[in-house]
Design goal:
The complex is a heterodimer of chains A (327) and B (229). Chain A is mainly α and 327 residues long. In chain A, 72% of the residues lie in helices and 3% in strands. In chain A, strand 1 (84-86) and strand 2 form a beta hairpin. Chain B is globular, with a radius of gyration of 17 Å. Classes of the chains: A mainly alpha (327), B alpha/beta (229).
Chain lengths: 327, 229
Amino acid sequence: MTRETVLNAGLMTLLLVVPLAAWTFDEPFLITLATRAVIFAIAGIGLNLALGFGGLVSFGHAAFFGLGGYAMGILAHHAQTYTALATWPVAIEGTKSMPVIWLMAIGAGALAALVIGALSLRTKGVYFIMITLAFGQMLYYFAISWSAYGGEDGLSIYVRNGFPGLNTMDPIQFFAICYALLLIVLLSVNRVAQSSFGMMLRAARQSEDRVQAVGQAPFRLYLTAFTISGAITGLAGALFADLNRFVSPTMLSWQTSGEIMIFVILGGVGRVFGPVAGAALFILLEHSLGGSSEYWHIYLGAILLGVVLFARGGLYGFLAGREQADD
Amino acid sequence: MSLLKLTHVSAFYGHSQALFDVDLSVGEGEVVAMMGRNGMGKSTTVKVICRLLRNRGGSVLFDGQDIARLPAHRVARLGVGLVPEGRRCFRDLTVRENLIAAARRGAWDLPAVTRLFPQLEDRKDQSAGTLSGGEQQMLAIGRALMTNPRLLVLDEATEGLAPVVRQEIWAAIARLKAETGMGIVVVDKSLKELRAIANRAVILEKGTSVWVGDISALSHDITDRYLGI
């Protein structure tokens, strides 16, 4: 077992033990914090697939996060107001079922990432950053101006959506759902990373010419990675909206994109479990520093600078050492 | 019919012309040496063959098919395997990952490559960046072989390696020639080894193929004029 494996296991255990302890001692707020961390981790894992493995610095992942959120908000809104989502050409009803909402969120994230990726992956570097940012902002302002779904005020959902056999309003049960999804996402992304697709993606980050010379099209690799990435982040968005029972354009804003990126960088770019560590650390900082000052982002900024300058591999690079060739 | 045929190929980097008139043909099972001094267009010709650079004039046929409009990865899939200059492996991937990542079905698989280069077997879980120069070169050749190419292009495969390692690489190329029907283009500077292995030679001078013929017909006069040796 490498140090990284030990760290992964420790991290996942900690993320499970803290809310369980909070449940025993009846501290629902701590459970909510842990749930937030888990959901942010999923969003970060999504971005990490593009940023960490493909080297695609997307500054527009809030678009997928927010779309996931709105997928949940819109479906649940129609369900709670008993109005149809569409009547033509086929009648579509709203729903309060989480699995259906997740599928829609994943679909919305994937589709948006496919379209945005197909257009922005024609550019590189700074241009790619700016174009993904521009797409994110487009969706942000669209959501603000779309008054049918609350516009700037967002959409409130009165009762959290349902999952067969569980009471989702109970914090620990909702946490369990999110944690299970995190595990599924981690396992899937780990498999993707180990597959020949994952290897070629990492290879493409190093040299596109060499990847072409062995018969792979970098564009297709990037677009696939970007689409999967958008799908995962979309799922996280739906969960986040369900956690708050609220979705607003803030989820689509560039600050959200930045925060998702912070999870990845804090945790360790290109490590499968990195964003989990990053999101947990972010929540920890938000909670501990946020209490002391309204401007806690100043300290977060300083910490981020420290990580980028002195601990290039993020928390994982610091604790697990240099990236293992094979783990 | 030749496996690869370049006719009157010209190519540009932006506005500056790098190739003026290059002719080159490689048959199945044939080893062709591409020679010339630095900056004469050898690597540019390699790029054109692999479609990493478009030729502006002339034609590039692979197995009779015009590949001028194909993107690089399609050409690689048709069966052109490149061993790029400078031992370019995927540094962050392990040796094994480098080999299997782009593998395509065929006679060349992991056991076959490790039979050719036994050193790679001992290093299989090491990341490619930690290998010695010679091992990286072997890995780059192995990676190209794993795509089961019909034409193998070796760009300066022995450059900057210790003499004993160079001999290993030459021995491997000789085995490829003897045991497979691959067409092989070797870009190299060591005339002695090329004479031992190549069937034919092409000499480039200022982006033009100035001499084409059997390598045995390459006289001292010509090598002195174009290669300075």
